[in-house]
Design a protein that fits this description.
CATH class: Mainly Alpha
Number of strands: 0
Structural class: mainly alpha
Oligomer: single chain
Strand content: under 5%
Shape: globular
Order of helices and strands: HHHHHH
Radius of gyration: 14 Å
Largest sheet: none
CATH architecture: Orthogonal Bundle
Helix content: over 70%
Number of domains: 1
Number of helices: 6
């Protein structure tokens, strides 16, 4: 899936955001809700305040899952299988929302990392997150 260079770029970006999962995740969710309001239907319990505890908590859980995926790039299916089951069978999230989330995540990364987030890193993250999205949507079939 990813070349050695792409893997290194994904890991390099993750190293820059690790430890800030809650704030990055909350910003990601707020951006998602603002740009794609229909996605809020799955998060009725969350508000629009960046400091809201529930928003920060869910944002942190989301980004911690990304961190697990970063650490296990070679084994995404096995690592993300419980999360895929949850989204497909319990939460019944529309799989068309995953690409929207990826777009918003890329914008959050670019806005925070700016010059450090090179075009090559963006391409590597796009490829990586698309792979994560594919794994998460496989359980819908």
């Amino acid at each position: 899936m990813l070349s050695a260079q792409e893997r290194a770029q994904v890991a390099q970006v993750w190293d820059l955001i690790a430890g800030h999962e809650a704030s990055f995740g909350a910003e990601l969710l707020l951006r998602l809700f603002t740009v794609y309001p229909s996605t809020k239907v799955y998060f009725k319990h969350l508000g629009f305040c960046p400091d809201e505890t529930q928003l920060l908590t869910h944002g942190q859980r989301m980004l911690e899952a990304v961190g697990v995926a970063v650490r296990h790039m070679d084994n995404l299916r096995a690592v993300l299988s419980p999360l895929a089951d949850l989204h497909a069978q319990v939460l019944r999230v529309d799989p068309s929302n995953f690409p929207l989330l990826i777009q918003c995540f890329q914008v959050v990364l670019a806005s925070h990392l700016q010059g450090e987030f090179t075009v090559e890193m963006q391409a590597a993250w796009d490829k990586f997150l698309t792979g994560v999205s594919v794994v998460l949507t496989e359980k819908y079939r």
